[in-house]
Amino acid sequence: MEGALLILGVFAVIGLVAALARVRARAERDKARRGSEPGQGDQLIDTGYHSGGLGGGHGSVIRVTRDPQQYARGFVPAHAKRAALKDAAKARAGTTGKTDDPDKDDT
Question: Is the dihedral of CA 60, 64, 70, 71 positive or negative?
Fold first, then answer.
């Protein structure tokens, strides 16, 4: 008898957890999507705050691009950007026979 009550209790807890998970998933699905749709132009973010009192606080506006590729390029470290530009210049020089370096001879 005690074993049957234990098994029944375990199934009750499993059922309760499953029901709560389903309610939570439905609520998350119904929420508005976060972020902004990709596109052209910038999105302006106002980062102002006021610390109370007279004249306290700070305000500024940040421009964030809506283009996902341009946004991702902002996270590339400077040394990687230089290396990518150098590799692209070598690739162009290899296909055209000319270099982008004015100090080097094009022959």
Answer: positive
- Residue spans of beta strands (DSSP E) within the chain: 42-46, 61-65
Determine if the pTM surpasses 0.70: no
Give me the residues paired with residue 63 across strands: 44
C-beta pairs of 63-72 under 8 Å, 24+ apart in sequence? 65/41, 66/36, 66/37, 66/38, 66/39, 66/40, 66/41, 66/42, 67/38, 67/39, 67/40, 68/38
The structure tokens listed for 34 are: 């976060």
| Each residue's pLDDT tens digit, 11-23 | 999 999 999 999 9
5-11 long-range contacts, Cβ below 8 Å, gap at least 24? none
Yes or no: say if 64 and 42 are a contact pair by the CB < 8 Å rule: yes
Residue 89 CA to its chain's centroid (Å):
30
Higher-pLDDT residue of 84 and 7 is 7
